[in-house]
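Think of the structure tokens as a kind of shorthand, similar to the way a musician reads notation: each symbol stands for something richer, in this case the local conformation of the backbone. In the example below we present two proteins back to back. Begin with the first one, reading the sequence and then the tokens, and try to describe in your own words what changes along the chain.
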Amino acid sequence: MDQQPQVIVRNAARHDVCLRGTVALTPDLNPGVRFAAAAGGKEGWIDVDVVDLGAGGIGFISMVFFPRKAVLTIRVYGPQEENPLMLTASLRVQRVCMTDRRPAYLVGASYESMTDETRAQLDAMLHSLSGT
């Protein structure tokens, strides 16, 4: 019998968003992985555009490549002019896809070891996105 390929099904809905964010490698969890000086990160933080957000993870576009399974810290800022910090979370990169020749990369990441504070921040964001 031929085995059918396994289909990966997302357990949580994601919301399409367009928010500013920054990401940094978590040094103690990524031995041997560092940004080159040309990556342009200020104090180790790289600017990204958060494009989707859900209870299971975050998608963002980056001009810097992140390897699969890398552990990152992300900061997501609000859409208001003051750009308040809305979420700080630890992520594990699950997939990376080059989107165009800039190059830019679409990164899909799942949450890693969520704290109560992170869960509260995420719940507040998801509540406001769902409009309930």
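Once you have a description of the first chain, move to the second and do the same.
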Amino acid sequence: MTVLQRPNILAQHHTSQRPNAVIDGLIGVDVADYGGSFTNYTTPTPLTTTEIRYAEDTNTTTPGKRLYIYANGKWSYVALT
């Protein structure tokens, strides 16, 4: 069976952009062993002009958590403690 992975509703909080809502988990989540310090983590292609993702590197020697936001055409992140 093939399962298509795409949001049920795409949206943005911006009056000049359509569609204007993203719902399907609300925030993307990526959890895996990315080699420590997110060495092998690649942010996905965004579905809208603004997007938020939570990423967790489960590497046993250097685990980490980050919150990513896609805005103004690029991904930025903050490390979480």
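Compare your description with these statements about the second chain. The beta strands are 28-32, 51-57, 64-71, 74-80.
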